[in-house]
Design goal:
The chain is built from eight helices and no strands. By secondary structure, it is an all-alpha fold. It is flat, with a radius of gyration of 21 Å.
Length: 179
């Protein structure tokens, strides 16, 4: 069940990342055209950067599901299958630990409980926590940076889901490796 949820979420992540990649391409093309005609749109650069940030985090999370992450296997390839299996489990545990730690740090950073406790009043939240995450605007777009930074907790949730699904879904030690 968890594997199917992970697969479904990975498909959503890949679809959104692909749309964002197309968006980045179009934004850069728009930027080239407008600069060439002498009517540069400065917000285009910033929007392209934020789209690329979101694309990267979504793609990285989906890569965990599909097993397309970067790995150096020069040593592990030479080990017996049983040891490779243990190392793969250890890597899954480390990735899960990282994802859970990132979730925790995002929880502390975004402080949703404090925001709710202050009745979603951003100024009261800032006064109580000295956390200005919900107030800082982007340089040219004027949108709150919290919308951009939201890519990190979304990544952390996806990474946690995929890492947990990988850990629980990994087949037990192959019979021939156990002998």
């Amino acid at each position: 069940m968890l594997g199917r949820i992970s697969a479904f979420w990975a498909r959503i992540e890949i679809t959104l990342a692909a749309l964002l990649a197309a968006g980045v391409t179009l934004l850069i093309l728009l930027n080239v055209v407008t600069r060439n005609i002498g009517a540069a749109l400065f917000w285009v650069d910033e929007l392209a950067i934020y789209a690329m940030v979101w694309m990267t985090f979504l793609g990285a999370s989906a890569a965990l599901h599909y097993g397309h992450t970067v790995a150096i296997t020069i040593m592990t390839d030479r080990l017996p299958a049983a040891v490779q299996h243990v190392i793969a489990r250890l890597v899954d545990a480390i990735v899960l630990g990282f994802a859970l730690a990132m979730l925790w740090f995002c929880w502390l950073w975004f402080a949703p409980a404090a925001l709710i406790g202050n009745g979603f009043d951003v100024e009261a939240f800032q006064g109580a926590t000295f956390n200005f995450i919900y107030a800082e605007p982007t340089a040219t777009l004027g949108v709150k940076k919290a919308w951009v930074w939201l890519a990190m907790p979304v990544f952390a949730l996806g990474a946690t889901l995929h890492a947990l699904a990988n850990m629980l879904g990994r087949s037990p030690l192959p019979q021939e490796a156990a002998e």
